Amino acid sequence: YDTSVAGYDLTHALAINTIYQVPLGKGKRFSTGSRVADYILGQWQLNNIFTASSGFPFYPTVTGDQANTGNGRTYEHANLVGNPHLDHPTPAQWFNIAAYATPAKYTYGNAPRNSLRTQAYWNIDTSLFRLFPVGDGRAFEFRAEAFNISNHPVLGTPVVNVTSAGTFGTINTTSSTARQLQLAIKFRF
Within a 13 Å sphere around the CA of 165, how many CA atoms are in the beta-carbon half? Predict the structure, then answer.
């Protein structure tokens, strides 16, 4: 039962990067005809990075040495005794915990390795840049950046140990970070 995908397998992964520079201002495709208006409205750039992937694989385990191999760490599989999949998983119960049991003493569990998956991941990072030219080849750059701009939480891995009474199958962590905003000004020369 140990043949499966790797623990770091991402069956599907997507990354899209967009950069849009406003084509308005001196030396650009469009101009207002006014140097002041071109200076104010031009030199803006919007950037986005969208990432998405399928969830990471995991499987329920049992603490201790049920098989009596002399190795007391958590490595043994649980017994699969039912259908582990739920129609609507929640952080309180990500999979059907009644589908797993501790194997009998001196036996190995039969639950397949990496047979379940965590929540799919997606994230959008956005930034807005603006150049303020101050002479030949010199400019101040203003940056406003937002990481996880939608503040979308992605759940972490559930508690996988069958012997963890009360917490088995629950998710208490996130694999994403909360929204982060930052502003910066730099001088380019």
Answer: 0
**What does pLDDT average to over the chain?**
91
Q: d(Cα 75, Cα 59) in Å, to the nearest integer?
A: 10
Q: Of 151, 65, 162, 157, give the one whose Cα is nearest residue 111.
A: 162
**In contact, 100 and 159? CB cutoff 8 Å:** no
pLDDT in tens, 9-53: 989 999 999 999 989 887 788 888 888 888 888 889 999 999 999
Distance, in Å, from the CA atom of 136 to the CA atom of 133, rounded to the nearest integer, reads 8
Residue 1, pLDDT above cutoff 70: no
Structure-derived torsion over alpha carbons of residues 157, 158, 159, 162, reported in degrees to the nearest 10: -120
pTM over 0.70: yes
Residue 43, judged by CB atoms within 10 A of its CB (0-12, 13-18, 19+), counts as buried
The C-alpha angle with vertex 91 and arms to 88 and 92, in degrees rounded to 5, equals 90
* Three-state secondary structure call for residue 44: strand
Strand-strand pairing, 138-147 and 13-21: unpaired
Burial profile 96-131: b = 16 or more Cβ within 10 angstroms, e = fewer:
ebebbbbbeeeebbebebbbbbbbebebbbbbebbb
